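Lay summary. Proteins are chains of building blocks that fold into shapes, and those shapes determine what they do. In this project we predict the shape from the chain. Here is one chain we studied, written as its sequence of building blocks.
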Amino acid sequence: MFDRIRTSALFGLHQATVAVGISLFPVAVFARQRLGINLPVRRLVETTGEAYENVDE
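And here is the predicted shape, written in a compact code that computers can read:
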């Protein structure tokens, strides 16, 4: 029971980070080109994806 809840929560978290990454893409491009700042959105998406893949079903 709790495994399904955990899996669903991690899937939702991963999907939310993907959506945030997509919506922040123009901001990330601007920050990198104009300000020289790299936003760690890719690392966040990869981390949540790995956590979702490592869930024991």
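What the prediction tells us: The two ends are 11 Å apart (CA to CA).
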